[in-house]
Write a structure and sequence with these properties.
It is a single chain. The longest helix is centred in the C-terminal third of the chain and has 13 residues. The chain contains 2 helices and no strands. By secondary structure, the protein is mostly helical.
Length: 64
């Protein structure tokens, strides 16, 4: 059986992990005006399984 070794493809963009670690998280939000009100955001939380996770949940809720 003949096996042909293909040349590796050139890497033109950073690896996924590097891009995730160094790239922007969110695009900038547009300035608020009467025509563009503040965006509505929603969050979903699941019931905590331990007392420490419940404390962490309420800390997060207060921060939001």
């Amino acid at each position: 059986m003949n096996q042909i070794a293909a040349a590796p493809l050139p890497v033109t963009e950073p690896a996924t992990l590097e891009r995730w670690l160094t790239g922007p998280r969110f695009a900038a939000l547009p300035a608020r005006t009467a025509a563009l009100p503040a965006p509505a955001l929603s969050f979903e939380f699941f019931p905590p399984k331990t007392d420490s996770l419940e404390a962490q949940l309420w800390t997060c809720v207060r921060r939001l």
